[in-house]
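Lecture 7, part 2: worked example. A protein chain together with uracil.
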Amino acid sequence: MRMVDLIEKKRDGQVLTDEEIQFIISGYTKGDIPDYQMSAFLMTVFYKDMTDEEITTLTLAMANSGEMIDLSSIKGIKVDKHSTGGVGDTTTLILAPLVASVGVSVAKMSGRGLGYTGGTIDKLEAIPGFHVELPDEEFIRLVNESNVAVIGQSGDLAPADKKLYALRDVTATVDSIPLIASSIMSKKIAAGADAIVLDVTTGEGAFMKNIDEARRLAETMVRIGRLANRQTMAVISDMSQPLGEAIGNSLEVVEAIETLQGKGPEDLMEMCYILGSQMVVLAKKADTLEEARAMLKDALETGKALAKFREMISNQGGDASIIDQPESLLTAKYQIELPAKTSGVVQKIVANEVGIAAMILGAGRATKDDSIDHAVGIKLHKKVGMPVESGDSLLTIYSNSDSIEDVKELLYKNIEIGSFATEPELIHDIITA
Ligand code: URA
Ligand code: CA
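Predicted complex, written out as structure tokens:
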């Protein structure tokens, strides 16, 4: 087989065979196929698309390019959850202990931030002492004993994806549904889950800027999941404004604790109930979504969910006293209010720009090698649809520098106050097999 013939075949809009796709992925992972041929191939996929069967073969070939985690020694159905990315998305910190507290096994491998703000692993590292790197056996032991462990993705998980993502990033081929779907699903499949709940975000803070694209991505991933024998469903959620109120690593840990105490922001709480109920049903711990939601609500109200978060933190070496003193995490030198310049109703809070503001403060990485300042970030006091009076604080900036005029200006430019607003729907659609 020659790579040039396969590029030509896809260029002419033909369907590749399983053997051909496996040849491309194993050749590229080993370094036999050079970047220039792979770049040309990615561009043909961008323009000519792939069938569901091709995408599934591609996904499985990428999953098989490295370590396949075997979770079979954990009893029960292992459910994973994945979000395609957002700003201030604190859900995993809340969902892992919440669903574990009703008996679902959560063996979660998470990533660091790809975009502007920290990923789940960065947020967990805001907890003093918390270990995100555990040997596989220890990870499995914790899930068996305690139903929950959240660790960083191992270096050898889907190495084909790591190499391909870096190449896509510099060849204008990130925005392709078959490539995004195979990238995400290859990592989920290699991480060993039996069932997968996908949160496909849409809006200005997300990969998919409009609902139609988000729906196509969601449907594609759900079909791949089914073809790969993993029960998969997707929720299409709104990310036009940040989720919840906190954006920034320590601030989001505090927000997670407050939410597990039943005092969290309404949109974030609702998102956790929606995704959590789906996880509980896929894990066969409840027959209906209503029953699942009632179980989760009970776990929250009785303190079981918060106790599980405390246990998860201790199990992984973290300082669990933060559960009782969450404010001890908020160590930024300055807390600076941003007063509204006019009165009216909040019409828009542009999620990705607020994410960039948090990144400039140090909450995220501009380049992959930057380090993160866990203490800094943004706490919103007003969200879309809320009335404001001139002079009201729109948000508090947590900063370790007091010269942040650029951040303030960026935030002012991206928070619109007008005479009326429609609150965005939290969930646009649910896609099941
Ligand atoms: N997230 C991923 O993991 N891969 C993509 O291609 C896009 C988003
Ligand atoms: Ca948040």
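The mean pLDDT is 95. The two ends are 36 Å apart (CA to CA). Keep this in mind for problem set question 3.
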